Amino acid sequence: MSKIVLSHIDKFYGENHVLRDINLTIEDGDFMTLLGPSGCGKTTTLRVVSGLEKPQHGTMTIDDKPMIDADSAFYEAPSKRGLNLVFQSYALWPHMTVFQNVAFGLKIKKMKKAEIEETVMHALKTMRIEEYRDRYPNELSGGQQQRVAIARAIASSPKLLLLDEPLSNLDARLRIDMRAELKRLHKETGTTIIYVTHDQVEALTMSTKIALFKEGEISQIDTPLGLYTNPIDLQAADFIGNPRINFIDAKGVYNGDTLSVTSEFGTYVFAHETLKLDEEIPEGEEFECVLGLRPEMVDIYTADPHHKNTVPAKIYANQPAGSETLVTLTVGSVEFLAIQVGLVEYDMNQDVFAVLHPGRMNVYNKKTGRLIKFAKTKHKAGVDD
Amino acid sequence: MAKKGWKRPPMTWKRFKNQFLNVVGNPFNVIVAITLIILFIFIIIPLLTMIQNTFVVTRGALREVRKLYPDAQVGGYTLYAWRYLFGAESFISSGGMGLKGTPIYVNLLQPLFNSLTVGFFVTIISVPLGALMAWLMIRTDIPAKGLLSSLILIPYMIPSWCKALSWLTVFRTPEYGGFYGLLTGMGVPVPDWLAYGPIAIIVVMTMHYYAFSYIMVSGALRSINSELEEMGEIQGANKVQILKSITLPLVLPSILSATIMTISKSIGTYGVAARLREPAGYHVLATKMKYFLGQSSTEAVGYILSIVMILLAAGTIVINQRLIGTRKSYATIGGKGTRSNLISLGGAKWPMLTLLVIFLIVAMFLPMFFLVAESFQIVPGGGYGSKNLSFYAWIGELENAPNPAFDREGLFKNPLFFHSLWNTVKLSLIASVITAVFGQFFGYITTRGRGKWYGNAVEQLIFIPYLMSGVAFSAIYYAMFSQPHLGGLIPTLTGTFMLILLVSIVKHFPFASRSGSSNMMQISVELEEAATINGAGFWRRIANVIIPLARHGFLSGFLLSFISIAKELDLIAILITSEENYTLSFLSFTYAETMPQAGDAICIIIIAFILITNKIADKFGGNVSKSM
Questions:
Q1: Which residues contact B478 (CB under 8 A, 6 or more apart)?
Q2: Average pLDDT over residues B112-127
């Protein structure tokens, strides 16, 4: 059991307001990822949870036990919070062997020698590095050091495991291996994990929930799918997804019931229930808005498919990349990117038909930059619009 | 700290209690507090005491003071010293000598002018010399680089006062002190202006302080990525253009730093000036101060001169920071490309090599040679023939002295030598262990507290002794402990080993702390945080993480302060009042007047000791360039 509740956390470095009113609840067993560009406060939040940083304002509880109560200057010691942390740099003690590194915390807990031996070896086995027990960190590769760091963190069976960009120092291949490893670890141990990264692929593939950070604030908390299909604002939409989402300028009119959006693609009318009504949507007048169109939501046909949402388009550029092909299209003056599965060949300036699915598009109010129309999270190919 | 959009919560009893526990319960805070107190007691209070003592009437000065202030009492306050120095009415001589006859000229302006002259010439010779050597050694394909680079800092390791003694072995004239030098012994007349005074002082100091610009500029050159220069080459610049418009601007901040440091150090040096200042009229600030401190009626005047010296040094440092400030940061450009393509000197290769070899002969080989040679002579300046050869200065006994001028046994028969040796070892060992330990703590506090008020406070307090020349600094301690404090709890320490020890420790704080912080900087904070998360408290982290990792840095820091304290002369010269407290350096210094051969012999012992210890420190990653 471990449920972490952060409320109204504010952290200053001197004049610098680095965390602004952070509210975050992490349920037991969650794999919560704090995602955002560098300098957005995600690592600071992790360090606040760990106890290495003391916020000036706010409270935190773990399983309803107070850990931080800034107003009465109460901060529980890091070691008494039942958590452990894997640092971005791994922070392995260079003067201790792998075994000594992992055993350090257990020794401090005054565990018996035989028990330490057993616990350490179990952790090393879990991370599949038991044969390196007597090596020093500088005799290990980056990936092995990473495993030692994780083994050290899980040896004390923490209720909460904190990971600070643990994969950023690994090469691309190892990173994919370690992602799988961490996901298994989460499943096997059932430990609640808070994971910090700026890599959206890591966030989307591993987490059960993602908190998206922007300039010291949390802009959105959602499941990976929810975050991907309906980013809360233009910046979030721009940040999530690779290749990037297409933004198409449009004009919108809201009549109090439906929202009709006119762009180079034509006019779409969106039903009341798809709108995000707690956002600012000007009523009865034309306003600037932006359509968000994911590249993989575009289907390309060389012959007219007679679909109601077909627009004639021209091929601008074609980038086959093996498993997928990136295609740049133009419709009128609008240029946008589409992804097709597998190798597809088009000629430059070839005329094609693009099937767009307005139901899967997001609409943003250009003035506020906020999402005003949800995209469908579930759809069947070719069936719906 | 005013924070926008956030108000400090009201102070409740619970908040106060928790805050108090947070602060007191953390040993780190306690250590910071103790450190601040120590620094305050040993740096700020002595400084204030010295300023205060420029006004206090001492017993020794009472008679003189009463001429101006008939009601003055011992312990009372007067402006006597200030009026003495700046030329109060009764001191102005009646003769019509103009400015030159006024006390302020004799007491302050003349020595100040002399100091500045020495500083100016030492700087304009040694900075370009050191910078050129650094460029040759780091960036060019000069031959025999390995050998040269192992030798090039040795002249700096020879204590500057040893070089002064060596100068005397050659140029000494019998008119002063009665001994011949090599030249006068051969009948070559040596004019006074060459043997003594500014020229001698400037030459000797140049052979020492070239090292500052050499060390700083070579550090800057090493950190410059050669790709920067190669880019210039691709753009079509020739070697001279590259040197002028790329390399030089990049090392300019380090050259400026070296310039300021050289000025400041050469103005403050005592030992060289004291040995080479005969005929007696020639005074620099440091020697004049020592002269005033040596007379009980004018001690307070000496303190004022010491303040002048501190202001001068502080002024140069401030100028340094103004000039360089943010620009200093680009001295560390580099990072990736460590591979550096060397610049081919072409035809200039051999002339440049010759220049370096001449420098090494003049600054290293000859001084050592003359010291060794004279130490085996019966009569100084009596030539190097076998008739004049003797081991007397090393092992001779008084009854069979070959020269009636010898008034003491040879070194190894002389109890005073062993006593001084013991004092030196004792002083260096205790002081360097203590400074090295403190240095690690200071380094820990300044690196972990970087940007926080206590980190800055410690850093700035520690910097103060660095601002002061050795003599000025010891003058402060001399003033502070010349009377009992706290109702006798701290007794008068004048003339005690304790005082010399104390001065040696505190004066080396800046250096030890720098070595400590560079050591601590290598230990990532995350290593400690990882231990914190695993439940290790402060002392456990120190014992299990910091100490094992800091060991080597500590050892090299210790050895370097050991060297520095063992050869120290300026710092302790005014504190040694009896043979009881002689150190080797001081003994050698006094021998120079009575039995130069023995003085030379001690120099050789000290130099050998320094070279060996430095070699050991080198093994632990320390090196002499870190001990500036």
A1: B293, B494, B499, B574, B575
A2: 94
Contacts of residue A303, defined as CB under 8 A and 6 or more positions apart, other chains included, come to: A353
Give the list of residues 6+ apart from residue A190 with CB closer than 8 angstroms, or none. Answer: A29
Q: In this structure, are A320 and A357 located in the same domain?
A: yes
Determine, yes or no, domain membership for A381. Answer: no
Q: Supply φ then ψ for residue B594, to 5 degrees.
A: -110, -35
Any A CB within 8 A of B19 CB: yes
Task: Based on the fold, state whether residues A312 and A341 are members of the same structural domain.
Answer: yes
| Residue B542 CB neighbour total at 10 angstroms | 20
| pTM, entire model | 0.78
Q: Do A192 and A307 belong together in one domain?
A: no
- State the amino acid at position B14 in one-letter form: K
Cα–Cα distance for residue pair B406/B417, rounded to 1 Å: 15
Q: Residue A93 and residue B535: Cβ atoms within 8 Å?
A: no
Q: What is the mean pLDDT of chain A?
A: 91
**Averaged pLDDT for residues A332-356:** 91
Measure the CA–CA gap between A251 and B98, rounded to whole angstroms: 92
User: Two tokens at B395?
Assistant: 């092992």
Both structure tokens of B461:
């307090």
- The separation between CA B211 and the C-alpha centre of its own chain, rounded to angstroms, equals 13
Report the 10 Å Cβ neighbour count for B416: 15
Beta bridge partners of B255: none
Asked if residue B1 has pLDDT above 50, the reply is no
Are residues A215 and A298 in contact, defined by beta-carbon separation less than 8 angstroms? no
Q: Count H helices, E strands: chain B?
A: 32, 0
Residues near A368 by Cβ (< 8 Å), separated by ≥ 6? A279, A280
Task: State how many domains chain A has.
Answer: 2
Q: Round to whole Å and give the CA distance between B419 and B566.
A: 14
Partner-chain contact A52 B9, CB within 8 Å: no
Lookup: tokens for B537: 């408290």
* A173 and A289 assigned to the same domain: no
Q: What domain range includes position A284? A: 236-373
pLDDT tier for residue B500 given thresholds of 50, 70 and 90: very high
| Residue B197: strand, helix, or coil | coil
Give the integer Cα–Cα distance in Å for B226 and B388: 56
Q: What is the pLDDT of residue B523?
A: 86
The tokens describing A275, both together, are 């709108």
| Partners of residue B15 in chain A, C-beta under 8 Å | 71-73
Query: If you average pLDDT over residues A287-294, what whole number do you get?
Result: 94
Nearest CA-CA distance, residue A122 and chain B, Å: 18
Q: Within a 13 Å sphere around the CA of A361, how many CA atoms are in the beta-carbon half?
A: 26
Between B425 and A383, residue with greater pLDDT: B425
DSSP state of A35: E
Q: In this structure, what CATH number is given to the domain that contains residue A205? A: 3.40.50.300
Mind telling me how many Å the CA of A108 is from chain B's nearest CA? 7
Judged by DSSP in three states, B79 sits in coil
Using alpha carbons only, how large is chain B's radius of gyration in Å? 27
Task: Say which CATH number the domain at A320 has.
Answer: 2.40.50.140
The reply to whether A135 and A200 lie within a common domain is yes
A205 and A244 belong to one structural domain? no
**Domains assigned to chain B:** 421-628 (1.10.3720.10)
Nearest chain A residue to B5 by CA distance is A17
CB-defined contacts A:B, below 8 A:
91
Read off φ and ψ for residue B386, nearest 5 degrees: -70, -25
Mutate to test the interface with A, among B17, B448, B522, B534 (most CBs of A within 10 A): B534
CB distance B402 to B410 below 8 Å: no
Give the integer Cα–Cα distance in Å for B151 and A282.
81
- Whether the Cβ atoms of residue B154 and residue B611 lie closer than 8 Å to each other: yes
- Out of A191, A210, A235, a domain closes at A235
- DSSP letter at B9 equals P
